[in-house]
Design brief:
Elements lengths: L1 E7 L4 E7 L7 H15 L15 H9 L3 E5 L3 H16 L4 E8 L3 H12 L4 E6 L2 H8 L11 H26 L14
Parallel strand pairs: 3-4, 4-5
Antiparallel strand pairs: 1-2
Helix pairs in contact: 1-2
Length: about 190
């Protein structure tokens, strides 16, 4: 059906699932990828799962394995529609989530996403500005970190905010006696 590829650097190990051409079922490859990544991260450290856009079966598998979901949305009608769809999937699995607004322009489109997030109790934790330089860097395969002053510090702060949000969700579940559906909290393999 596909293969799992692994690459490492000094601080990061990266796993990638590659579906065979013509294969229609991505979930078995996603499950194998999650197993491999979770096994490698068992010694400690953060495990970041990056799923495809939308609300497909592959996304559902990634959401099921996650402790907290970072939903990335663009301020367009299609972006808001996709955010609504993936939020429904995340909510169905009772996963805590936050939103990052990508390609933010500061206009009415941003405001629509902000209002939707507020109406659904979703924290909007970061905005990534829409700039031609970032788009050109992305198209050339260069990391946009080089072109957005202060982005590295903002990403570190985002990591801390995700940890805080997750801790709040766990404390809230313990306080109410509800079960928490996070991957580590419920003893699942991921």
């Amino acid at each position: 059906m596909g293969k799992i590829r692994r690459a490492s650097s000094e601080r990061v190990t990266f796993f990638e699932g590659v579906l065979d051409i013509g294969e229609s079922r991505a979930t078995p490859v996603v499950d194998a990828l999650l197993d491999a990544a979770c096994e490698a991260s068992a010694a400690g450290g953060d495990l970041i799962l990056d799923g495809p856009p939308g609300a497909s079966c592959a996304v559902a598998a990634v959401v099921q394995a996650a402790e907290i979901c970072l939903l990335v949305a663009e301020p367009t009608p299609f972006g808001l529609h996709d955010l609504e769809q993936v939020h429904a999937l995340v909510a169905l699995r009772a996963k805590p989530s936050v939103v990052v607004l990508n390609r933010s322009r500061g206009g009415e489109e941003d405001t629509q996403v902000e209002r939707w997030c507020a109406a659904h109790g979703l924290p909007l934790v970061m905005r990534i500005p829409h700039t031609r330089a970032v788009a050109a860097a992305y198209a050339a395969g260069r990391p946009p970190l080089e072109l957005l002053p202060g982005i590295e510090e903002r990403l570190v702060a985002l990591r801390a905010r995700l940890a805080e949000q997750l801790a709040r969700e766990v404390r809230g579940a313990w306080a109410t006696g509800d079960s928490f559906h996070g991957a580590r909290a419920n003893g699942s393999r991921r």
